[in-house]
From TrEMBL:
GO terms for molecular function: ATP binding; microtubule binding; microtubule motor activity. This is Kinesin-like protein. It comes from Dipodomys ordii. It comes from the Eukaryota. Residues 376-699 form the Kinesin motor domain. Pfam families: Kinesin. It is a peripheral membrane protein. Residues 737-746 have a biased composition (Polar residues). Keywords: ATP-binding, Cell junction, Coiled coil, Cytoplasm, Cytoplasmic vesicle, Cytoskeleton, Membrane, Microtubule, Motor protein, Nucleotide-binding, Phosphoprotein. PANTHER family: KINESIN-LIKE PROTEIN KIFC3, KINESIN-LIKE PROTEIN KLP-3. SMART domains: KISc. Belongs to the TRAFAC class myosin-kinesin ATPase superfamily. Kinesin family. One of its GO terms (biological process) is microtubule-based movement. It is found in: Cell junction, Adherens junction; Cytoplasm, Cytoskeleton, Microtubule organizing center, Centrosome; Cytoplasmic vesicle membrane. The gene is Kifc3.
Length: 764
């Protein structure tokens, strides 16, 4: 028993020891558990912190290098891309002129630099991303390690629990066997029971602790699960980020591709432009080379010429050296020769001047003689064509015919009888203005030599006086042609003579002289003797215009016309009742001799010569007729007196003759153009006009053949000759039968028109 007891005791102590060991081990296990849990907690904390920092890092990366930066990058690239595209378009739009290649290459290097910069940045970003990935991988590895260790710990703990529970079961079994033993043993059992309750308590405590540990492990598991979830979400985030990065990379790649394409096309453009420029340059170069070849050949051909030129030049140089001496010598001899020549020329000049003056005098004399032979007073007739105004019927039939062999004869059929007249010249209706002018132009040029000339247009109204003198703008008459001729003649002589041509225009109506170019055309002008005692006449206040061109003449004529038109309502009628005078004065100075000449050309469109007195006109019409008759008969008187070389010429009997006194007397020349209407109804007026013309012409035909028919003036009433006012010379009064055969009618009408007796002519 004792043995059993000791055995039990031993067992008990053994058990106690084992319990102590168990306790110790439990404590160890506890502390171990605690340490593991703290370690795990720390690890979890660490992981949490790392996760937070990782998240922060990710967001930082995102903000710094991530999406935003890449987006910015992408935007920047897109902007850059757009700019490059525009530049490319501009480049394409530029003409294919020689491309500034350097600019292209600069741009391309810039673009290349930018691209490499961008590539660097991308590589940096990639590096950072891979670092981040590595870090995430490391953290994942560590997490797996921690998980593994946690699993080991849990397995160890389970084994320990198993072992403890097994031991506890063994103890229970031992206790139960002990209880089934004898009383001493009971005691022991009791003790053991007591001891066993303690053990039980310790066991329950350890169980409770175990429970607590299990709870903690469950909690740890929970935390681990959460961490796993966090890790998972972190993985997802990382995957998302990777996807974004891949997307950005793809975009970057695309932009890079685009940029490369753009660069490629730019490069192509540049190459094309360079090629074109190169081709052009080659063509130009070729042309230049060809030119150069031409120039070279020219140069080769020029070289011999140059050599000869150089030789010539050297020769000339040598000559030039000796030239001053030669020149001086030559100059001396030339001077002597020139002096001699000048003397000779001077002598010759003097001789020539003398001869020239003599010739001039001779020419004037000859001209005078010629005109005198022709007759100082020449009479020509001009028959106008039949016009619409002549009407139709027997009255409008032609009454005038011509001699085909003699252009000085005109035949008129008057009241069924043919009457013939001989004048200096007769112009048929077919004659042009130029034909008529040719006949008078010798007279006009004599005006330049200092002669006074009068050209009268005489005839009934409507016979063509104004047409012959003024003409039409398209076909001008004597007035304008005369001035044109004067201009051209004066210009021809311009080297020796200096001429001035002045023009005045006047009108005589009812014996009142008016200035047609004056500011006051109504003003009456008077004819006065020059106060210098020269006996010359002048008209104070008569406007004189200097003319130098046809334009000037036209202006003067226009001005005269305007004055006349504003003055009179019926100009046609008025002009047929008044005498219109154009007075052209030509003053010349001989540049070499200083000789002065003055010639006057009077172009007179006379008032209508028709006999109005017959129709029994009254009032102002009668007064007009009287004045016209008076002035025309005065003109006839003056011409007759001049032709018959009478001592007294009755110039003062009318304003017209008085005004023209200078131009009618002396060696002046007069031309009378008798205008004739060809129609039957005007035959009697034509007859009178032609009679007047023939008589004027026949007054003087040169000294030996002077024909005087002054007695026949009476055939035209207003030119009736009144012996009382003249001192007729017998020779000048010798009658010769007029060709017309018309009977003379004594001056009854003249007396009727000028009843109060004409004022006696005052000698000039
Ligand atoms: P006058 O001045 O004598 O009264 P005009 O000169 O006014 O006469 O002439 C009268 C008309 O006859 C005008 O219409 C004019 O144009 C015309 N006439 C006169 N002579 C000619 C001619 N030679 N050729 C053509 N028409 C003429
Ligand atoms: Mg007229």
């Amino acid at each position: 028993m004792v043995e059993a007891m000791s055995q039990l005791q031993e067992e008990k102590s053994q058990l106690q020891e084992e319990l102590v060991v168990l306790r110790e081990r439990l404590a160890l296990h506890d502390s171990d558990q605690h340490a593991t849990s703290t370690q795990l907690q720390n690890q979890v904390e660490n992981l949490k912190e790392k996760l937070i920092s990782q998240a922060q890092e990710v967001s930082r990366l995102r903000s710094e290098l991530g999406g935003t930066d890449l987006e910015k990058h992408r935007d920047r690239l897109m902007v850059e891309n757009e700019r490059l595209r525009q530049e490319l378009q501009e480049l394409r739009a530029q003409p294919a002129a020689p491309c500034p290649g350097c600019e292209h290459s600069q741009e391309s290097t810039q673009l290349r630099d930018k691209l490499s910069q961008l590539q660097l940045e991308v590589a940096e970003n990639k590096g950072m991303l891979s670092e981040l990935n590595l870090e995430v991988q490391q953290k994942t590895d560590r997490l797996a390690e921690v998980e593994l260790r946690l699993k080991d710990c849990l397995a160890e703990k389970a084994q320990e629990e198993e072992r403890l529970s097994r031991r506890l079961r063994d103890s229970h079994e031992t206790i139960a066997s002990l209880r089934a033993q004898s009383p001493p043993v009971k005691y022991v059992i009791k003790t053991v029971e007591v001891e066993s309750s303690k053990t039980k308590q310790a066991l329950s405590e350890s169980q409770a602790r175990n429970q607590h540990l299990q709870e903690q492990v469950a909690m740890q598991r929970q935390v681990l699960k959460e961490m796993e979830q966090q890790l998972h979400s972190s993985h997802q985030l990382t995957a998302q980020l990777r996807a974004q990065i891949a997307m950005y990379e793809a975009e970057l790649e695309r932009a890079h591709g685009q940029m490369l394409e753009e660069m490629q096309s730019l490069e192509e453009d540049k190459n094309r432009a360079i090629e074109e420029a190169f081709a052009r340059a080659q063509v130009e170069m070729k042309a230049v080379h060809e030119n150069l070849a031409g120039v070279r050949t020219n140069l080769l051909t020029l070289q011999p010429a140059l050599r000869t030129l150089t030789n010539d030049y050297n020769g000339l140089k040598r000559q030039v050296r000796g030239f001053p001496m030669l020149l001086q010598e030559a100059l001396r001899s030339v001077k002597a020769e020139i002096g001699q020549a000048i003397e000779e020329v001077n002598n010759n000049n003097q001789e020539l001047l003398r001869k020239y003056r003599r010739e001039l005098q001779l020419r004037k004399k000859c001209h005078n003689e010629l005109v005198r032979l022709k007759g100082n007073i020449r009479v020509i007739a001009r028959v106008r064509p039949v016009t619409k105004e002549d009407g139709e019927g027997p009255e409008a039939t032609n009454a005038v015919t011509f001699d085909p062999d003699d252009d000085s004869i005109i035949h008129l059929l008057h009241k069924g009888k043919p009457v013939s007249f001989e004048l200096d010249k007769v112009f048929s209706p077919g004659a042009s203005q130029q034909d008529v002018f040719q006949e008078v132009q010798a007279l006009i040029t004599s005006c330049i030599d200092g002669f006074n000339v009068c050209i009268f247009a005489y005839g009934q109204t409507g016979a063509g006086k104004t047409y012959t003198m003024e003409g039409t703008p398209e076909n001008p008459g004597i007035n304008q042609r005369a001035l044109q001729l004067l201009f051209s003649e004066v210009q021809e002589k311009a080297s020796d003579w200096q001429y001035t041509i002045t023009v005045s225009a006047a009108e005589i109506y009812n014996e009142v002289l008016r200035d047609l170019l004056g500011r006051e055309p109504q003003e009456k002008l008077e004819i006065r003797l020059c106060p210098d005692g020269s006996g010359q006449l002048y008209v104070p206040g008569l406007t004189e215009f200097q003319v130098q061109s046809v334009e000037d003449i036209n202006k003067v004529f226009e001005f005269g016309h305007t004055n006349r038109t504003t003055e009179f309502t019926n100009l046609n009628e008025h002009s047929s009742r008044s005498h219109a005078l154009l007075i052209v004065t030509v003053r010349g100075v001989d540049c070499s001799t200083g000789l002065r000449t003055i010639g006057k050309l009077n172009l007179v469109d006379l008032a209508g010569s028709e006999r109005v007195g017959k129709s029994g006109a009254e009032g102002h019409r009668l007064r007009e007729a009287q004045h016209i008759n008076k002035s025309l008969s005065a003109l006839g008187d003056v011409i007759a007196a001049l032709r018959s070389r009478q001592g007294h010429v009755p110039f003062r009997n009318s304003k017209l003759t008085y005004l023209l006194q200078d131009s009618l007397s002396g060696d002046s020349k007069t031309l009378m153009v008798v205008q004739v209407s060809p129609v039957e109804k005007n035959a009697s007026e034509t007859l009178y006009s032609l009679k007047f013309a023939e008589r004027v012409r026949s007054v003087e035909l040169g000294p030996g053949s002077r024909r005087t028919e002054l007695g026949s003036w009476s055939s035209q009433e207003h030119l009736e000759w009144e012996p009382a006012c003249q001192t007729p010379q017998p020779s000048a009064r010798a009658h010769s039968a007029p060709t017309s055969g018309t009977s003379s009618r004594p001056g009854s009408i003249r007396r009727k028109l000028q009843p109060s007796g004409r004022s006696r002519p005052v000698p000039v």
